[in-house]
């Protein structure tokens, strides 16, 4: 399939990612709940806990999509704080903005269309940056990590929530079977879009494992790096501090 993007070049990948999220935006939240059986809510809740966010802080939720993390951060940082929901995709941003506005989250949230590789913010701006299920879609991940490092304040923290590797063989087999059969099928039935969900499964398989991503974060300038596996390593939360 053309979704095996080892062989596709940079522009192709960016175009593909744009098409996928343009296509899934309207059904994104529903599919998230179904595909993860609701567990993505726990992964996100843990991410918020690990962020140590406090009132008054400035937070960037990059690849923020439909805004699950942004909504939680907005409550924590309050009127004196600010949350920027940034995403490369206008359809995802629109769904996010509508959802948060309907939920009464407003005043301290800004929406910015931006590429994680080239963040349009001045140096040393944010106390905390999160990227949840976004990094694997970014073409040049090293560049994106350096860009995040640049816009963090010294002492600020980056949290990367992403699919990773389980070292449990049985779980790994079950998970592969699930992601390459059930996911595209659900995509077909619910969103009438099997290809996008096949991309999802393949992008998960291609994403760097825990130790590789930690090394990438170090190379991008982060210190005190580490990660926490969830659901047997199917998902990992990586942390790094800007020195
Ligand atoms: N963070 C949200 C969540 O956890 O539910 C959304 C995750 S969604 C799977 C991935 C998001 O990454 C999409 O909204 C997509 O548009 C965005 N994205 C992909 N490539 C990007 C890039 N280079 N820069 C910024 N956002 C990007």
UniProtKB/TrEMBL annotation:
GO MF assignments: methyltransferase activity
Top enzyme category: transferase
The enzyme's E.C. designation: 2.1.1.163, 2.1.1.201
Keywords of this entry: Menaquinone biosynthesis, Methyltransferase, S-adenosyl-L-methionine, Transferase, Ubiquinone biosynthesis
Entries under Pfam families matching the protein: Ubie_methyltran
CDD domains tied to this protein: AdoMet_MTases
Known function: Methyltransferase required for the conversion of demethylmenaquinol (DMKH2) to menaquinol (MKH2) and the conversion of 2-polyprenyl-6-methoxy-1,4-benzoquinol (DDMQH2) to 2-polyprenyl-3-methyl-6-methoxy-1,4-benzoquinol (DMQH2).
Designated name of the protein: Ubiquinone/menaquinone biosynthesis C-methyltransferase UbiE
Originating organism: Kistimonas scapharcae
């Amino acid at each position: 399939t053309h979704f095996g993007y080892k062989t596709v070049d940079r522009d192709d990948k960016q175009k593909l990612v744009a098409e996928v999220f343009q296509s899934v935006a309207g059904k994104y939240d529903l599919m998230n709940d179904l595909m993860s059986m609701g567990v993505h809510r726990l992964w996100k809740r843990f991410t918020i806990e690990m962020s140590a966010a406090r009132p008054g802080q400035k937070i960037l939720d990059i690849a923020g999509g439909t805004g699950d993390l942004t909504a939680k951060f907005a409550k924590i940082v309050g009127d004196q704080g600010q949350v920027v929901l940034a995403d490369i995709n206008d359809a995802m941003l629109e769904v996010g903005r509508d959802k948060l506005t309907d939920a009464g989250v407003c005043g301290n949230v800004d929406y910015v269309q931006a590429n994680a590789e080239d963040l349009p913010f001045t140096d040393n701006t944010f106390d905390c940056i999160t990227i949840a299920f976004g990094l694997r879609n970014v073409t040049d991940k090293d560049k994106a990590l350096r860009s995040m490092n640049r816009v963090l304040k010294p002492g600020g923290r980056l949290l990367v929530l992403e699919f990773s590797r389980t070292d449990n063989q049985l779980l790994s087999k079950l998970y592969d079977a699930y992601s390459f059969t059930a996911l595209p099928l659900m995509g077909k039935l619910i969103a009438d879009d099997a290809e996008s969900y096949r991309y999802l499964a393949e992008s998960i398989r291609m994403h760097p494992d825990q130790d590789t991503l930690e090394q990438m974060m170090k190379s991008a300038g982060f210190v005190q790096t580490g990660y926490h596996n969830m659901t047997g390593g199917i998902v990992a939360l990586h942390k790094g501090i800007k020195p």
